[in-house]
Structure formats: C-alpha cells, structure tokens
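Before relying on records like the one below, remember that each one covers exactly one chain. Contacts with other chains, cofactors or solvent are not represented anywhere in the record.
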Amino acid sequence: MRIGVISDTHGVVRPEALSALRGSDHLLHAGDIGGEDVLAALAELAPVTAVAGNIDGFRCGDAGETARVVLDGVRFFLTHILDRPRRPRPEVTAELRREPADVVVFGHSHLPHDEVLDGVRYFNPASAGPRRFSLPISVGILEVQRGRVVRSRIVALDARSETALQKRMNQLSRA
C-alpha cells in the first residue's frame, strides 16, 4: 500500500505535489491545510485523513487537532505540532501512551524528518505550500505491507529543494 504524506500547504495545491502523490492508496495531511478546497483536490487522488493546523484554527472541514487511522495494519497518529520527536509535546506523549502508534505524522516546522525512535517512526514531509526561506518544498511517500513500513522517502518538488532536503533532514533531532 502506498501512502502519500503532505503538510503545510497553506492553501496552495502545487501541480508537482499532486503528481508526486498520484498513485497513492491513501493520503495523510499533517495540517496547516489552508482551506477545504485543498482537501477536495487531494480527495480526487485518494481517500484523505487530515489534521488541521494552527492557521486553520485546528479545524478544517472534518479535520480536527489529531487523527488516527490504521492502513494495512500500520497505526498512524497525526498531529500538526509535535515539537521535537525526542521531546514531543505532553499532549502527544499522553495520546501515544493512551493508544500507541507505529507512525507519528506531523508538520508545522516545515523541516523534513524521518526517524525511528523506540520503535515509532516520526515522519514530517516538510512543506508543500509557499516556500519559506531556504526550506524545502516536498511531500512524503510511505510504502506499507502487512503491518510495517517497508520504505519511506521524502520527494523534493523542485530542484532547489533537493539540496535543502539533504541539509535539513532530521534537523529536529540535532542538538
């Protein structure tokens, strides 16, 4: 099963993002959606599970502050603001204690992240919306089979983002 992951669209639906996500069986949006029209455009590609971000007032259509979905046996927890994978916000820690997840999908930082800590994958595809500073524009792809993630990658949506992805990857876990 191919799962597309997008975040921080801020009301922008890039054709490059749609192209990269095409062929996904399910899409996850990690917040700062920027309007229900973004969710509608994504829903034309595949079913969407989304959380709203701070620019959305943590509400956008059916999207609220957190979401959970199980896809091909993999338990996903979505939140917009995680803080740092090694030091999640207390609310996130409490949610994961209450009901564990295999993958935590988050956004907000616009920084790409793909790290497994204590058996949990923390995944942030960076931003697919307007460019901020030297941060990458990208989306993520997760391949899952029989209850586990077998492949993960973050896809740059333009040439400038290739270098930015390498430079910024997992920056949230650096000192």
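DSSP finds four helices and twelve strands in the chain.
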